[in-house]
């Protein structure tokens, strides 16, 4: 596996991978949050919102994205995109942030997520940051992500986010 900087020709593969990675998450998220909240964030299918949000990251801040490439997968000599990470730097807090982490389901549980996180940590250290942060959902669909972050040494910050329907 090689972790390399993202390039715009990888855009569609990165977006497709992210949708595959989050496909099992969104039905569980939808079941875990109030319907008016889910409907406000995803008035159409969740895929449309994700494609828009992730596309903006890839288009507007490609310098923050790195990709994991695997050689010779599925009998092919063509490198295959296995995952990607977006690392944001927040100098005002001396903090790096794993903003997006996506690993193709066919390559999950092979250390790719950990390697991408380590790469993100290295980026932040190189920028002089002294801590890292990552956010994820508290619902059952995000349990694998929470496990990954906790296994990497992240400590959970107790946060409560409440929503009220005003209609």
UniProtKB/TrEMBL annotation:
It comes from the Bacteria. InterPro entries: Acyl_CoA_acyltransferase, GNAT_dom, YpeA/RimI_acetyltransf. SUPFAM superfamilies: Acyl-CoA N-acyltransferases (Nat). PROSITE patterns: GNAT (PS51186). Keywords: Acyltransferase, Transferase. GO terms for molecular function: acyltransferase activity, transferring groups other than amino-acyl groups. Residues 1-167 form the N-acetyltransferase domain. It holds the Pfam family Acetyltransf_1. This is Acetyltransferase, GNAT family. The lineage of its organism: Bacteria, Bacillati, Actinomycetota, Actinomycetes, Mycobacteriales.
